Amino acid sequence: MTTADLIWMNGEFVAWEDAKVHVLTHGMHYGTGVFEGIRAYETDEGPAIFRHREHLERLERSAELYYMELPFSLEELREATHELIVRNGLRACYIRPIAYRGYGPMGLDPLDNPVEVSIAAWEWGAYLGEEGKQRGIRAKTSPWRRISPDSLIPHAKASGQYLNSVLAKVESRRAGYEEAILLDQHGHVCEGTGENIFVVREGVIATPPHSASILDGITRKSVMTIARDLGFQVVERDIARAELVLAEEVFLTGTAAELTPVREIDDHPIGDPGEITRAVQQVFDDALCGRAPRYREWLDPVAVPSRA
After folding, report:
1. Is there a catalytic annotation at residue 169?
2. Which listed residue (133, 140, 157, 169) is catalytic?
3. Are residues 22 and 144 in the same domain?
4. Of 107, 123, 193, 294, which has the highest C-beta tally within 10 A?
């Protein structure tokens, strides 16, 4: 991966290679951490972070769901992120804030372990590849089901929960696909390993509802707003597995993947990215880079221009 100079850890900036934790850190053993994926884009006004406040608010909500009180305010985390981007001289970057239970008593009860927070930022291209964004990717329905709300908290972006996605991702990659699509406990379409999913049938855009164990994606909500502003009908409903291959268009959304079309699922061709996918993708890309005045409020400009 492309590294940067500094990482912010618990209120201090440390060298990338010195950003370390104790081997008995609770989060390492039991997955007791929550995190966010955020991106900053180069705009005419310099670097700007996409929906920064919403991401930090979700980080705080995820922490609360797992009985973790963040030791920093959201404004402190926002300011630290701005300074991190400036100090690293970044114009566009991926940002990873993480809060986790640190070194302390060993055991399943985490409440006496400190909550620690770090923020890293580095240059990172399209998660599923630039070619994937343009031509679409191949996906496979995973035999692994998405975590159930009876066992964990799908709405929390929690570290340990992503073992579920890791299993599906590895299985799909080893089978020759770029991504996996998970079903929920009822057999309905849920999401990708790190993305929300949309299908287009008869001109209507559909996406699984919150009851389908999805993560409440911020990119998902942004794309839904854009699609409706463009005049498309968007509905949240249960989606049967067969609809994935019956759909005229399918696409994935997420901070890392941005908006990526799917051209094939389970060896059934969906086809080249369709007109609806392309229309929404174009406006979404414009919004990310500050070229869409209507969505300018989604951007958090970095206060001090980077030295780049």
Report:
1. no
2. 157
3. no
4. 193
